[in-house]
Design a protein that fits this description.
It comes from Gigaspora margarita. This is HCP-like protein. It is a single chain. With 778 residues, this protein is an alpha+beta fold. It folds into 4 domains: 222 residues, no CATH class; 132 residues, Roll (SH3 type barrels); 121 residues, no CATH class; 167 residues, no CATH class. Helices cover 29% and strands 28% of the residues. The protein is built from 21 helices and 30 strands. The strands form 5 sheets. Strands 3, 6, 7, 8, 9, 10, 11, 12, 13 and 14 form a 10-stranded mixed sheet that branches. Strands 15, 16, 17, 18, 19 and 20 form a 6-stranded mixed sheet that branches. Strands 24-25-26-27-30-29 form a 6-stranded antiparallel barrel. It starts with a strand and ends with a strand.
């Protein structure tokens, strides 16, 4: 891809006195990035273009509300009885043999057919009786009420034959002119109670701020490809001082499945903001190109012309929307149309001092953000990153917890971080006064606080999410807020805690919260930061971009494409690619965390999804506690072989045991290197026993009758006691003592499982009681 350049202003406040006032910045065009992605078969064949999906388990951007509702990403119209219906329009539809008012939220794919998701509308007689009043009664013939779409009664999915006709209904925002049917208020629930709020206090439907331009006549018969663009910006100090802060701008294409997007090579670099440069100056060419792409451009994709539309879907915001901990989130959120008015007031101020005062009052900058030139909802489409959000909050809790411990308690906490029971008398008294709890109840309250925070972290990072998970997320965040602010006054004004209010809405908007997290983006960012010492240190942003485009060229060839200067692919490169497959596919070399000594190779996998199995750190036979000469062991081994279709007799009775194993797991779109250790606790799924938690007691290999070595794991099963821990309120599991379940399985049973973190309760005597603490991907 060609590297482009333009001159930008350099701030004298951010650079040394000898710096020039203008410097060149280097960047890649979004047009070039899109062309390369769409013309790469290995990427294009994984991408999704089409309507939003209504599914039980939500994983992708197209499972979220933004994709489904916006004409720039999802289905923008549907024809019913020769009438064209668009998202955002008001209709009359049939429900339970009655005609009702409703608003089309989206046109979605549900049960393999296009259906209509409708937001319900109430008439006066359907309102809760508490809202019956003379004011509402006087306007009952023309006033209607929208129902919050996220309530159980707020929306419904209907087939197209239930649509009767369109109807004109006006949403009254900041206007005193009322004619015909109109909506001024939204019915919703806060803390379980019905409430009404002004219709201004809601995010606009995407159709109200995003418009799909009509195609030129020559484009009418072309296939349309709509792209979801995710942009991320972060800076880093290259030389650990304020003068050398280099900003990286990265792009992702949301049409790729999650497993494809998380690969490092599928994070595309737009460029680097030079030392002392301004993000707005740098991003101007991108904004200009995106405005053209919003209208649609002609691009040749895989040899055929297509009309390509690309729009900004998501940006990452590091700062939360204010600091108010009022519990009515609908009334404290920021909305694009309202902050537009604030910006207009700021700009209309006659002096800079007045502008600054108004901007400070509303917590805004003095001018419209440059990305507002594009079609987007500045608040809804700027999500908070869950990694920074949850880490900052948990770090704060850790510091406050350690601060209330005595020196002896702090040492025990750091050694076994469950020892909360040694508090200083001063802090104990303060917590008693703040919470009103008895002295012996304070310790339990702190432990319960940590339990709630851990559960909250688990569901925030959960993938995928279901509709019930959205409700659990909202409930868990509410519990976390209450317990943190009850125990520690420092949390009352913590921005991270306020920002968590918005997570349930962001989860629904983008399908999951992990879709907008920046974990892998930070890795890409870190890679470029680590490359700085290896440049000439004179024109760093240019050198980094040259390194990146070189990688793109290698990727271009590694993905089976060819240099346009030649008529066919290079045979020499194809051979070289096969020898360096993982390097070219992953773009980085990692130093193995495991000891490379005593590595056992040539292990045969029992599954196509798990390859390159390595067994490491052999265990001497005299240290191995598993009895291999029992009838039960032989029986379990035979069943384990049968699991992958091997029914020959087991002649060899020699087994080699190891401390750990590593393997490459292919999940369809990408390959992940996984590590497994003895005594790990994992969740597995078997045909006979379903899902269950197990502890890996041994990792070993066995030579079969065909002369091949196969890997196995020896496990102990956990049993759910159906009880919960009195302090942390988590399920309690014990190790099963019976031998009714098979204990030996092929190592490949680990395909697609999750590693689970447990907490050991040391106060229960002989029995090993283990409590689920958190679940993370391997």
């Amino acid at each position: 891809m060609p590297i482009r350049t333009r001159s930008v202003d350099i701030s004298q406040k951010k650079t040394s006195s000898t710096s020039k006032k203008r410097k060149p910045c280097y960047y890649l065009s979004i047009f070039d990035i899109i062309w390369n992605v769409l013309n790469n078969p290995s990427l294009y064949n994984t991408m999704y273009f089409g309507p939003g999906f209504e599914v039980e388990e939500k994983k992708e951007y197209w499972h979220g509300d933004l994709w489904a509702e916006s004409p720039l990403f999802g289905q923008d119209k549907i024809i019913i009885d020769r009438e064209c219906y668009y998202p955002g329009e008001f209709i009359i539809y049939k429900e339970d043999n009655e005609q009702r008012f409703g608003r089309i939220r989206s046109i979605i794919s549900f049960n393999n057919e296009l259906q209509i998701k409708i937001q319900r509308i109430y008439v006066y007689n359907e309102l809760p009786t508490k809202f019956y009043s003379k004011v509402h009664s006087a306007t009952q013939e023309i006033q209607l009420w929208l129902i919050d779409q996220y309530l159980e009664e707020g929306s419904i999915i209907v087939k197209t034959n239930k649509i009767v006709k369109k109807i004109n209904i006006s949403i009254i925002r900041n206007s005193s002119i009322i004619t015909g049917l109109h909506i001024k208020e939204i019915l919703y629930k806060s803390n379980g109670h019905w409430k009404l709020r002004n219709v201004d206090l809601d995010y606009m439907h995407p159709s109200e701020y995003s418009t799909l331009s009509a195609p030129l006549s020559q484009y009418n018969n072309l296939e349309v490809l709509k792209l979801f663009i995710d942009i991320y910006y972060d800076d880093f100090g290259t030389y650990r001082n304020a003068y050398h802060s280099l900003g990286g701008v990265y792009i992702q294409i949301g049409n790729m499945p999650f497993d494809v997007r998380k690969s490092l090579r599928n994070h595309f670099v737009l460029g680097f903001v030079p030392f002392g440069g301004n993000f707005d100056d740098f991003i101007n060419p991108f904004v200009s190109d995106m405005k053209q792409l919003e209208r649609g451009v002609l691009i040749n994709v895989q040899g055929c012309d297509h009309r390509v539309i690309a729009s900004l879907g998501c940006t990452i915001a590091d700062l939360p929307q204010g600091n108010n901990l009022n519990l009515d989130i609908a009334k404290i959120s920021r909305y694009h149309h309202i902050t537009n008015t604030y910006f207009e007031n700021i700009i209309a101020a006659q002096t800079i001092t007045q502008q600054n005062d108004i901007a400070k009052k509303y917590g805004l900058q003095n001018y419209f953000p440059i990305l507002d030139k594009l079609q987007r909802e500045r608040h809804l489409q700027s999500s908070q990153d869950i990694y920074h959000l949850m880490a900052g909050k948990t770090s704060k809790l850790l510091k406050l917890t350690v601060a209330i411990l005595s020196p002896d308690g702090e040492q025990k906490f750091l050694k076994v971080w469950k020892s909360f029971d040694i508090l200083t008398n001063v802090e104990l008294t303060k917590l008693q006064e703040r919470t009103g709890l008895q002295r012996n109840q304070v310790t339990n309250a702190i432990i319960r606080c940590w339990s709630i925070v851990a559960k909250c972290n688990q569901i925030v990072f959960k993938f995928p999410l279901s509709n019930s998970d959205y409700k659990d997320l909202e409930k868990s965040l509410k519990e976390e807020r209450q317990v943190l602010t009850m125990l520690f006054s420092d949390f009352v004004g913590l921005p991270n805690l306020h920002a968590c209010y918005h997570l349930p809405r962001h989860a629904r908007t983008f399908g999951t919260l992990t879709n907008t997290e920046v974990g892998t983006k930070e890795m890409v960012h870190r890679i470029f930061k680590n490359m700085v010492p290896h440049t000439n240190r004179k024109n760093i942003n240019f050198d980094l971009l040259k390194c990146y485009t070189t990688l793109q060229s290698i990727r271009h060839l590694a993905d089976g494409r060819f240099d346009p200067r030649y008529s066919r692919p290079s045979i020499d490169f194809i051979i070289m690619f096969q020898n360096s497959k993982y390097l070219f596919k992953d773009w980085f070399i990692t130093k193995d965390l495991l000891d490379m000594d005593n590595e056992e190779s040539e292990i045969c996998s029992q599954s196509n999804n798990i390859q390159n199995i390595k067994l490491r750190k052999p265990i001497p036979s005299y240290k191995q506690m598993i009895k291999t000469d029992t009838a039960l062991f032989y029986s379990d081994m035979a069943l384990a072989y049968q699991d992958f279709g091997y029914n020959a007799s087991l002649v060899n009775q020699s087994y080699n045991f190891y401390e750990c194993a590593s393997y490459i797991q292919n999940n369809g779109y990408s390959e992940v290197k996984c590590h497994l250790h003895k005594n790990n606790v994992v969740q597995i799924r078997t045909n006979n026993y379903g899902e269950g938690y197990v502890m890996i007691k041994a990792i070993f290999k066995h030579k079969s009758s065909n002369g091949r070595y196969y890997p196995f794991i020896y496990i102990d099963w956990f049993e759910n006691t159906s009880r919960k821990h009195t302090k942390v309120n988590c399920p309690i599991f014990i190790l099963r003592q019976d031998t009714s379940r098979c204990k030996i399985f092929p190592l490949t049973i680990m395909d697609g499982v999750q590693k689970t973190h447990f907490v050991h309760d040391c106060n229960t005597g002989v029995k090993i009681i283990i409590t689920i603490w958190n679940t993370i991907n391997i």
